[in-house]
Design a protein that fits this description.
The protein has 204 residues and is an alpha/beta fold. It has 8 helices and 7 strands, in the order E-H-E-H-H-E-E-H-H-E-H-E-H-E-H. Strands 1, 2, 3, 4, 5, 6 and 7 form a 7-stranded parallel β-sheet that branches. Helix 1 (16-30) packs across helix 8 (182-203). The radius of gyration is 16 Å and the shape is globular. It starts with a strand and ends with a helix. The structure holds flavin mononucleotide (FMN). Flavin mononucleotide (FMN) binds at residues 12-17, 84-88, 120-123, 126-127, 172, 176.
């Protein structure tokens, strides 16, 4: 059977959501899926990027990541969205991308496809779950089947920095300079594995 194609579509300003995205890809690979990593077009003015060394550095190390086009979601067997929290919501860059997927919504490209969500926040109670749900709502409208993270993954009960049944999360500090903890990266890998596992079942 052909490996299911799982699109991991994320935005990351300081690089932490990118690290979570890479962990999700690792899980997809482990479950013998094909991980297709995409970021989305930025909306930050160059003046903002160029005036902040941390943003510039994060841009550099993501410079090889493909930029998603709405039609890229048409051939996926599963989709996983990742975003930094913005006021308890997904970021504008990801919202902007998803708002351009109207034709794919009309075509039903994501109907019955498994989907997952992950995010990063500055603080522990800074809106991780609401951010996850904001992405899940959009995917539900697309007809996707939301896949969470079950408590059989022991890290979910152990993490002190994120990790929810709605999807992997990481607290990265107010300056976004604390990388996601290993437990949270493990939960991110597990989501990648689980979406792939279910995509394989649905493809049969
Ligand atoms: C405009 C703005 C709004 C933010 N809102 C929140 C928030 O509601 N809760 C929170 O914990 N962090 C908030 N943050 C912090 C980001 O979520 C954090 O920097 C991000 O998760 C880091 O991910 P990244 O390294 O992938 O950019 C906000 C940051 C910005 C710039």
């Amino acid at each position: 059977m052909a490996r299911p194609k799982i699109g991991i579509i994320y935005y990351s300003m300081f690089g932490n959501t990118y690290k979570m995205a890479k962990a999700v890809c690792g899980g997809v690979d482990e479950a013998e899926g094909e991980a297709l990593l995409y970021t989305v077009p930025d909306l930050l003015p160059d003046s903002v990027v160029n005036s902040n060394e941390s943003i510039k550095k994060a841009k550099e190390f993501q410079s090889k990541v493909k930029i998603a086009k709405p039609e890229d979601i048409e051939s996926l067997d599963g989709i996983i969205l990742g975003s930094p929290t913005r006021f308890g919501n997904m970021c504008a860059q990801l919202r902007n991308f998803m708002d351009q997927t109207g034709s794919q919504w009309i075509k039903g490209s994501l109907i019955n496809k498994p989907a997952g969500v992950f995010c990063c926040t500055a603080s522990l109670h800074g809106g991780q779950e609401t951010t996850l749900i904001s992405m899940a709502f959009t995917l539900i409208h697309h007809g996707a089947i939301i896949i969470g993270v079950p408590y059989s993954i022991k890290e979910l009960a152990e993490t002190k920095t994120g990790g929810t049944p709605y999807g992997p999360t990481a607290v990265v500090g107010e300056n976004a300079d604390q990388s996601p903890a290993e437990t949270d990266l493990t939960i991110a890998r597990e989501l990648g594995k689980r979406v792939t596992f279910i995509a394989k079942k649905l493809k049969n």
